[in-house]
Amino acid sequence: MLLEICVFNTATAIAAEKAGADRIELCENYANGGTTPSYGYLKTVREQISIPVFPMIRPRGGDYFHSADEIGIIRKDMLLCKELGFEGVVFGLLNQDGTIDRENTARLTEAAYPLEVTFHRAFDRCKDPLEALETIIACGCNRILTSGQEPKVMEGLALVKQLVEQASDRIIILPGSGLNSSNVASIIHTAGVTEVHTSARIRIRSTSQYRNEKIPEDFDLDFVDAEEIRKIKAQF
């Protein structure tokens, strides 16, 4: 079993590795569902983390249909991750009708080689998941991150199991969203997966001493629950 932890800052990545994470999905902007980390963020994590790290490659929040210019940005960011020595990347592309953008997914997966490619939860927004599974396999991706097209993976567990069975070892199905130490054993047993994904996310108070009360904003920071990571690993 392999545990992937999704993180949104450098300190969290370091803490996740120390707590026992097997792989990191590296993102920025939790509120937008994750976007591409900055160059400084990428380079600092690569220098300080020894376990495999898969950066999210997503130029903006919003939908998963991307213009030609955005596809170009994704390709450039992907090549940068290759230059920096990352082990994989995470992206996902849809057409406007909810099908997988097969042409660009295949081209970007080829450009990413030898990095592994995870097709992210854009999959959970596609129209026909079983057809999409075959398309993503044909594009050469290594895994699909999914909650079974439901907000939380426990609600979509039947589809996750169906995807694992249909995939038949041709691609890895990586369940995530709402996965935790209390349900991970059930998810593994029911769906027959070999990897799991979570953020084990907690919020910590900012140490900033001054706040302008006229401009209310959330100063708290995303972090990782190290004890939760250890509890999940204990279920393997």
Number of helices: 8
Order of helices and strands: EHEHEHEHEHEHEHEEEH
CATH classification, class level: Alpha Beta
Mean pLDDT: 97
Question: Outline of this structure?
Answer:
With 236 residues, this protein is an alpha/beta fold. The protein has helices at 10-19, 39-48, 68-83, 102-112, 129-138, 157-167, 184-191, 226-233; strands at 2-7, 23-26, 53-55, 88-91, 116-119, 143-146, 172-175, 195-198, 201-204, 221-224.
Molecular structure report:
With 236 residues, the protein is of the alpha/beta class. Helix content is 36%, strand content 17%. The chain contains 8 helices and 10 strands. It has helices at 10-19, 39-48, 68-83, 102-112, 129-138, 157-167, 184-191, 226-233, and strands at 2-7, 23-26, 53-55, 88-91, 116-119, 143-146, 172-175, 195-198, 201-204, 221-224. β4, α4 and β5 (116-119) form a beta-alpha-beta unit. The mean pLDDT is 97.
Topology of helices and strands:
Layout: E1 2-7, H1 10-19, E2 23-26, H2 39-48, E3 53-55, H3 68-83, E4 88-91, H4 102-112, E5 116-119, H5 129-138, E6 143-146, H6 157-167, E7 172-175, H7 184-191, E8 195-198, E9 201-204, E10 221-224, H8 226-233
Parallel strand pairs: 1-2, 1-8, 2-3, 4-5, 5-6, 6-7
Antiparallel strand pairs: 9-10
Helix pairs in contact: 1-8, 3-4
Keywords:
four-stranded parallel β-sheet, 10 strands, single chain, 236 residues, alpha/beta, 8 helices, TIM Barrel
